[in-house]
Amino acid sequence: MNSSIVNIMNLPDEILIIIWNKLSKIDVLYSFLNVNRRFDKLVRDKIYTRSIELIKNNCEDEDNCSLSDQILDRFCFDLLPQIHNIIEQFILESFSMERILYAGNYPQLCQLTLVNFAQELAIRVLADESYFAHIFKSQITHLVVLIDYTESRSYDDLRINVFQRIFSLLTTLTDLDFGQCSRSLHPVLTFNNSSADECFSSTIVNLRINVRTFDDCQCLLDGRLSQLRTFIVRIDFISNSKLSVNNTDILHLECFSLTSYNQTLDYDSHVVPLLRRMRYLQQLTLYAIVTNRSTFIDGIHLSNEILDHIPQLQTFNFNIITYTYANNQLYENIKCTFPNGKFSQVDFYLDQYPNGEARSHIYSLPYKMNVMHDISSNFPGGLFTNVHVIWLADIFCPFEHKFYDRIARSFPFLTELTVINYIPRNYKPLQEANNNNQVSSVIVFPHLTHLHICSANINVAEQFLVDNNTLLPRLIHLSILYRYIEEVTENFTCKATRRNCVNIKRLNFFFSTQFVHCEEFYLYFPCYK
């Protein structure tokens, strides 16, 4: 027994627990279970065994969250059979899920999170004849399903193979989170070709889901989920409805969140009437990008058209962008529409474009959502600790170094960034600093893993990939035009960009067919898959 183990064994329980709490549960169980009786007693405490996450720590590469075979073998053959009867929650991924569930009976298991859940696996395990049917049918009350969105399946396949099977088999399910994540790519469901009998449940209380159309959202509110109290929905497209108008009040819903990242012309004709039906709501979250409106959505509109119709509402979080033409509303005029007594703190900014279009962006504070889209050059900044995904979009004004610095400070936990900017800068960041008689600071995005550069000029690529401008220590996924990456890296030889490229595992080249890369390319991106 080496000296480090001896030293650990000599530590009092209180110090051991402090050390273990800084480790992952996997590491604690793997390293200290079956070492001696004292460690066994401590490790078997519910703090380490009630909820177990058997995927890689900080799994940034969504396609590979599997633990090594060595770790899985130890858990499945040695550790799980000893503690299976006290585990209440599992976080698993597709590759090892069946193997782990075979390792014990898990009589207390009631909460399950499935990462990268493939449809083929769903067909196999979400069936009455499945070995795990008794667990799913009579024990699971809380289920989170993160779908493998790389699968090329139809919307109907996803509904039939996974969603419908969940409702048919899991008869004790009360909480379902189906595919909701902050990533730009996400699986969506549609119910256009389904009947109310397909996804019927008298037990579901809380539902989080992504759907394709506004009609799909309305289908889930048609009474088939009779006990639904919390409904969090992300809708891809809010457009012309094919369903007949329903003015019936939705009586039981207490919490509703509607998010749509795509622009809509039908906010006033679809979203507002739906919200008015929810007279007993206590919490409301609204995220919308509204176009072709005669006036901006402001405090007066929100009060008169929505809040006055929901008298029991206690919390209202919103992020709303409005595009309009020929609008003369001024900053001070909009500010006056948000009285302190009726709204929590609100911030906003305006954009006036050369083509005559105007845009307002209003949002409640503190900002509760984890995504913010279409941030322009006039964004005032702030502190948004909940936000992990943003889009920077301005087709009329170039983004400068100081703007990106403001973004980095405002969103300290950013993991995914999309930049849409077509106007080139007149000078580079160093010149910008010299013109202002100051030293240009290097911007750091410490948590950024995904970067998408959608630009008609190379400025944005230079801004983010040259390490004198920006540091991206955790970048693993880059989307960019091939000619930009070729130019900014000087044909994969530039030292100034190597630092931000060395960890990249995935490169997506816009408008490019797949081709064989040169040897220098693979040397420059050693982690590229």
Automatic annotation (TrEMBL):
PROSITE patterns, per the entry: FBOX
Task: Name it.
Answer: F-box domain-containing protein
Ranges where the F-box domain occurs: 5-52
Which InterPro entries does the protein's record reference?
Answer: F-box_dom
Give the domain of life: Eukaryota
